[in-house]
Amino acid sequence: MRFAGQLFDEESGLFYNRFRYYLPEAACYLSPDPLGLAGGVNPYSYVHNPTGWIDPFGLNALLPGEGGVGPYGKLPGTPGDDLTGHHMPSAEYMKKKFGISKSKSIAMQMEHKYPSNKGRHPLTRSYARRPFLHETPRETLAKDIMDARKIYKDQGLYTKEIKQGLRETIRLNKETFPDVFKKPSKCPRK
């Protein structure tokens, strides 16, 4: 079966994607991604979901919509899109410390392959863990941002979309909950 963007090479019996050949029987490329690890964790794989999006050069590993930010209850979602909103700070932290509902808490779309615990979302420091209630709101937000950034960097996916999404997460938290994320006042010196 040929995927979008592939040309069939009759001489070799392989599919060609401009830079490398694809072997459908093995469901992989014969040579590694020319971008190295910047193309994703498996340099021999095709896109994650060829029916939902195309990657004619075989170079992108982010899912469509990944890195999008907003209140959790307003994030777009379609069953089977392998995305979920990752709350930063965690929904439980915001609920227990400030009474802010899960749907109003700020979240960024991250890969999560349901029903398994695979993808980038389960790798986060707060996934399926108790909230870090001893941390200040600014501290827990900063740690969650650094954690997500590390996950994307480790997978070679720290793109402009992800950078922008992380910045937007900070901005929206401060804008939506100014009393929660205000800088602490400094004590006057005598």
UniProtKB/TrEMBL annotation:
This is RHS repeat-associated core domain-containing protein. NCBIfam families: Rhs_assc_core.
